Amino acid sequence: MSGPPLYLDCDTGVDDALALAQLVGVGADLVGVGSVSGNLAAAGGARNTLDLLAMLGRPDVPVAVGAHDPIGGTFDGGAAFVHGENGIGGVVLPRAGEPVDGSAAELLVRLAHEHAGELRVLAVGPLTNLALALELEPALPRLVRDVVLMGGAALAPGNISAVAEANIGNDPLAAHAVFAADWPVTMVGLDVTMHARFEESHRRALAEAPGAVPRALAAMLDVYFGYYTPILGRPSSALHDPLAAAIATGQVEPTLAPVVPVEVDATDGPGRGQTLVDLRSRFVGYPPLPGTRHRVVLGIPDGFGDLLLETLLPLP
């Protein structure tokens, strides 16, 4: 395995499944996965994760079930209209493995101690588990190397409200705690993920691949493409979580990613869930600002869909 140890926190829907396959495809040192309610309930996300990891030849990776409800709220049932009733487009994977004992927050804290100063955290769902881990272990920001998350928007509109992106908006209190913690955060938000696309040609290539995993991913994409076609104007989809995974592993290097202050609106008003990104330094080239620790990805190279396809096609 290559690179530093990586903990993945996810709500395994279709794009989470693509990201998980991508991480295995690039040889990431995946040391643990936690599930959280978002695209579907946390228990269902853990099941999807376990089954896909087994197909990928990584049944050794521990998977823990995380928070069912957001902090201070109740899980709203998920996004079956985007990801299908089971979160992965109705595709039924061979059942394999069971979650480990303990919560995802507890798994994250344990791994942070085992890999102190080295563990990277990639979060591609609501940030509930990370916030709970911060409560369990206040020293967590000193133990974790950095956090890369798919969530938020700086200049782009939201996708569950005019200003809120789903992962942040589904648990704003947790997101507020994660952004306020004293650790480096890279925010991979809708500003770039909506421009990272899989086209019908990519889906067809996966469907025609020899491996069971690429073919299963292609089948999952049917429902996902159905959701995105009226939004994007053609059969295609955004690649939210895979882009965050590619940036976390260094497979993609952002073309613009200033380090600027970010806060999360956790109030009950119309701005609830908005990531308030202070871009006022843009006119002088984003000089370093003392005390800032939030890297906000605003630009990526072209062709990410092709790169992702190259990573997925050889999978078993």
UniProtKB/TrEMBL annotation:
<dbReference type="Pfam" id="PF01156">
    <property type="entry name" value="IU_nuc_hydro"/>
</dbReference>
<dbReference type="InterPro" id="IPR001910">
    <property type="entry name" value="Inosine/uridine_hydrolase_dom"/>
</dbReference>
<keyword id="KW-0378">Hydrolase</keyword>
<dbReference type="InterPro" id="IPR036452">
    <property type="entry name" value="Ribo_hydro-like"/>
</dbReference>
<protein>
    <submittedName>
        <fullName>Nucleoside hydrolase</fullName>
    </submittedName>
</protein>
<dbReference type="GO" id="GO:0016787">
    <property type="term" value="F:hydrolase activity"/>
</dbReference>
<feature type="domain" description="Inosine/uridine-preferring nucleoside hydrolase">
    <location>
        <begin position="7"/>
        <end position="282"/>
    </location>
</feature>
<dbReference type="InterPro" id="IPR023186">
    <property type="entry name" value="IUNH"/>
</dbReference>
<keyword id="KW-0326">Glycosidase</keyword>
